[in-house]
Amino acid sequence: MTILDRHVLGAWLKTFGLIMAALLGLLILVDMQRNLADFIGSGAGMGEVFYYYLVLVPGNVPLVLQISVLLSLLYALGQLHRSNELTAMRAAGLGLFRITRAVWLFGLLLAGFVWYLNASLIPWSVEEARGAREEMRRAAETRKHGAAAAGTFTALAFANDAAGRLWFLNSYDDVARRGQGVSLGFFDRDRHETRRLIAKEAYFDRWRGAWVFLEGRELRFDTATGEQQEIEPFAHRIEEQVDDDPELMMLLLKDPADLSLFELDRVLTHLGSGETARARRYAVERERKQASPFGVLVVMALAVPFAVGGVRVNPAVGMSKSIGLFFLYYLLARVATLMASFGTLGPTPAAWLPDAAMALIALWAFARLR
């Protein structure tokens, strides 16, 4: 690495490190303002709170990395531009890519680092932080309203189309792993209901890998007419073939953006290849998380030409343009997700459309500098 490479890279990395640390710290402060009172009210110790914020940080790295790269490059290269250093380098016959060569090499390393995080650390971080947060919130609810109200979800519905089962639970206690007021319908391949279990209570027995129903009755139906044929009451029944995981039911209650890559894969395995708006939303989110390493390079491609080609008298012009394009990127991401939900775009094109659009704009900006 030449002296020039070290000079340009050093000027950027100093700013990048400061902005990255500041944004991560800001996210932690925002989370503290939102959740810290609940954590204290739950009786959580300092160690539990510290562990939560420790595992929270890796999951937020992709969120702040792109904006950190954008702002730091705009500032560092803008400083070199305003001090006429870039002008001197280009007057010496060096091209823009040669001047920023070390920056691009480090950007490739960052993209590889994000890919590694997405494949290993970030899914664990997202799940672990959410688990720690929910555990402390349950403890707070228990202290305020009693154990019966903690971790309880109401009106929970779940469909297993592949197995032909449809669930409805009046309430589900995520702490005790038990449902109250449970109705489970069984359907044949023609979507005719064959039987239905109605129980006062049900829980998932992990040792057996099956659901246990308590104090209920079984209804059987004529598939041709839909008429009820018989009723069989029971006090205790184990359905060996019913293996629907309640953890998967809980995942389907969450927003796709809040799920880790591993959880998205699990949900999509359950939903199968069904062309539903819900399945497409999860598929787009998974593709977007997988495409996030490329987004780092796209942001760099946007920042470099606008920082170098900005107006020297008012450097805020280049920065405002780049930030505007950065927000346009997120707007395109939302529009693409909406189009994928309606089936207008496939999940893969919807996930890559914002990056592709920004890459074209970056190429246009680079061409103007020549």
Helix coverage percent: 55-70%
Unreliable segments of 5+ consecutive residues = none
Spell the H/E element sequence. Answer: HHHHHHEEEEEEHHHHH
Radius of gyration: 27 Å
What does this structure look like?
This protein starts with a helix and ends with a helix. Helix 10 (316-341) runs antiparallel to helix 11. The chain has 370 residues and is α+β, with helices and mostly antiparallel strands. The protein has a six-stranded antiparallel beta sheet with strand order 1-2-3-4-5-6, with no helix packed on it. The chain has helices at residues 3-41, 46-82, 85-91, 96-99, 101-119, 121-145, 246-251, 261-271, 277-308, 316-341, 347-369; strands at 152-160, 165-173, 178-187, 193-205, 210-221, 228-239. Helices cover 62% and strands 18% of the residues. The chain folds into two domains: 3-135 and 274-369, no CATH class; 151-254, lipopolysaccharide transport protein A fold. It has eleven helices and six strands. Strand 2 and strand 3 form a beta hairpin.
Describe the structure concisely for a colleague.
The chain is α+β, with helices and mostly antiparallel strands and 370 residues long. The protein is built from 11 helices and 6 strands. The chain starts with a helix and ends with a helix.
List the defining traits of the structure above.
2 domains; 11 helices; 18% strand; alpha+beta; elongated; 6-stranded antiparallel sheet; 6 strands; lipopolysaccharide transport protein A fold; 370 residues
Topology of helices and strands:
Elements: H1 3-41, H2 46-82, H3 85-91, H4 96-99, H5 101-119, H6 121-145, E1 152-160, E2 165-173, E3 178-187, E4 193-205, E5 210-221, E6 228-239, H7 246-251, H8 261-271, H9 277-308, H10 316-341, H11 347-369
Antiparallel strand pairs: 1-2, 2-3, 3-4, 4-5, 5-6
